[in-house]
Design goal:
This protein has one domain: 3-Layer(aba) Sandwich (Rossmann fold). The protein has 10 helices and 10 strands. The strands form 2 sheets. It has a 7-stranded mixed β-sheet with strand order 3-2-1-4-5-10-7. It has a 3-stranded antiparallel β-sheet with strand order 6-9-8. About 45% of the residues are buried.
Length: about 280
């Protein structure tokens, strides 16, 4: 693991215990979806893969399994604490084909055309700056190589029976992303962005989760509220913020409550140029 951290734009969701718990839960919940994404992309065994903004553990296990013992996976993240957790997890899992680098996603310092596949999940939504991030991804992928991107779309994020507080807290979270330069609905436009950059063989699929209200991930608006609390309080006021949190928690706690999480839009494409894949 590199000891140096390259300075970059501030991450919207600041590292804390709650945020690290959310990232671990997120990785577990979306792992099957990532497996289906890689199945749609095609065989990647023996490939050199990058998980950009890997967190702990991100999609590292899914990529390592898909690449197989002859492949290699590099995880990049800007947060040394997350990488320490990821390293501990990798040792426990016995995944010796994974290496970690501490670097800014916009300027990784990795060599040009170093990877057969670059994967990024939930990077564009909090960071924004789509063009610079795509430019770095494009630099890292070999000619003929693939990019696979997973980003959210908040259209389906709702509770049943309907809850005004749940809906309003979700709307405030989406607005906070936008006000901070991010885009919670980044998944919607990824296909167009990749086509505009000249990528070919663009594919799209979507994944969603329907959960009982008592499930930990159904309460995701409350986890985001904890990570974004200063920004949400500034937007809503303390009293309204606490009211929405309480109402959201009460809605999820109803015996028959069901929550649909945001949709994950999965987009993949091939970099122009003569293929150099294994």
């Amino acid at each position: 693991m590199s000891a140096a951290v390259i300075e970059g734009p501030q991450y919207l969701l600041q590292p804390n215990v709650t945020e690290r718990e959310r990232l671990a839960l997120q990785a577990a919940m979306w792992e099957p979806a990532t497996e289906r994404l890689l199945a749609a992309v095609g065989p990647v065994d023996g490939w050199r893969c990058l998980d950009l903004g890997c967190g702990a553990p991100g999609a590292l296990r899914t990529l390592a399994r898909a690449a197989g013992p002859q492949g290699n996976v590099v995880g990049v993240d800007v947060d040394p604490a997350l990488l320490t957790e990821a390293a501990r997890w990798i040792r426990a899992e016995g995944l010796d084909t994974i290496e970690l680098r501490c670097a800014d996603a916009f300027a990784t310092g990795l060599p040009d055309s170093a990877f057969d596949l670059v994967h990024a999940r939930f990077m564009f939504a909090p960071l924004g700056r789509h063009d610079p991030l795509l430019a770095e991804i494009e630099r890292l992928v070999k000619p003929g190589g693939l990019v696979a991107i997973q980003e959210p779309d908040a259209a389906a994020w709702q509770c049943w029976p309907p809850s005004r507080e749940f809906d309003d807290l979700v709307a405030a979270i989406v607005a906070t992303f936008a006000a901070s330069g991010g885009d919670f609905n980044a998944g919607r436009g990824m296909q167009s962005l990749l086509r505009a950059r000249g990528w070919s063989d663009v594919g799209v699929r979507a994944e969603a989760l329907a959960l009982p209200g008592t499930h930990s991930y159904a309460r995701l608006p409350l986890l985001f509220a904890a990570s974004l609390e200063p920004k949400l309080v500034a937007q809503l006021g303390r009293r309204n913020f606490e009211r929405l949190k309480a109402g959201c928690a009460a809605a999820c706690a109803q015996p028959d409550a069901r929550v649909t999480a945001f949709v994950v839009q999965q987009t993949w494409a091939r970099k122009a140029g003569l293929a150099e894949l294994p």
